[in-house]
Design a protein that fits this description.
This is Sterol desaturase. The chain is mainly α and about 290 residues long. It is built from 14 helices and no strands.
Length: about 290
């Protein structure tokens, strides 16, 4: 029930900001296509109705069978050390997410079995980087927040980590930490770039302050650059903590303007069929021959 409330909270934010995008004209003139809308509805429905409940069910059944009585085993930790536990939860979850997201964007590893694993990640994540059509007019929209292939939720360990903490009794930690991350990640997908006002402010101290903050937190334009077609599409792989991009992954990219072109080039079958885009199984295009 707590997990459902959290999902609905983030979904409500996405619905409201999506309405704002429509009313303000940020989805017109090819910025958002009919396929973008369909993909957003399909991905969000599958996440809410299938993926999250299934992962939680498998975790619950597996742990209750392997370790009877483990449900709620860490509730004392939340009760006695709430804030330290929340901070550790948030930092660990974001580190896991950033590392595996980077893996999906990295160059092909030399080890052959690992190439197949990475190919599965690349195939599953590819739909998240399709905005608009191939006419280069597409732009990022808040409804892209949950868009990924069918397998993404099952292969990203940070999602299992979130639900594992919920199962172990860190209920409030889970709710607050995941709600903040979900809302922050959604807000970086909205078609706005308020941080550019500060990056390009006439006062130097404002520009420097924004530059410093962008090394700690991810702001909209940083994530928009991740969705750009070009050199920055493998940058800014974290959802909230840019300090990991800066100090650990080496993927921080701070720009003072919006991307010129959003989204990856789409194949003909991807452009025509949302079902093929979402339910893709073929990893062979991402693995070298031989």
């Amino acid at each position: 029930m707590d997990d459902q409330k959290l999902t609905m909270l983030v979904t409500a934010f996405i619905v409201l900001t999506a309405l704002w995008e429509v009313v303000s004209g940020r989805t017109r003139d090819g910025r958002k296509t009919r396929e973008d809308w369909r993909m957003a509805f399909l991905s969000t429905f599958m996440m809410v109705a299938v993926q999250r409940p299934l992962v939680l069910l498998l975790l619950t059944l597996g742990l209750s069978t392997l370790i009877p009585g483990s449900a709620g085993a860490l509730s004392w930790l939340e009760a006695q050390y709430f804030w330290p536990t929340l901070i550790v939860f948030f930092c660990v979850e974001e580190l896991i997410h950033g590392a595996f997201h980077l893996f999906a964007h990295s160059r092909r590893p030399k080890y052959r079995p690992l190439q197949w694993v990475q190919a599965f990640y690349k195939m599953s994540h590819r739909p998240h980087h399709m905005q608009g059509a191939n006419d280069k007019r597409g732009q990022l929209s808040v409804t892209q927040t949950f868009v990924n292939g069918w397998a993404w939720w099952f292969i990203m360990p940070n999602y299992a980590f979130q639900l594992l903490c919920l199962y172990l009794g860190l209920v409030e930690v889970f709710l607050i930490g995941t709600a903040f991350k979900g809302l922050w990640a959604a807000h970086t997908h909205v078609n706005w770039n308020y941080d550019l006002y500060f990056h390009n402010h006439r006062w130097a101290w404002v520009r420097k302050l924004m530059w410093g903050l962008s090394h700690v937190l991810v702001f909209p334009t940083q994530h928009h650059q991740h969705h750009a077609r070009g050199r920055n599409s493998a940058k800014n792989v974290t959802s909230t903590l840019a300090i990991y991009d800066w100090l650990i992954f080496g993927t921080l990219a701070i720009e003072t303007s919006k991307p010129e072109v959003y989204g990856w080039r789409q194949k003909d079958d991807e452009a025509r069929s949302v079902l093929r885009r979402y339910f893709c199984w073929d990893v062979r295009p991402y693995v070298p021959r031989g």
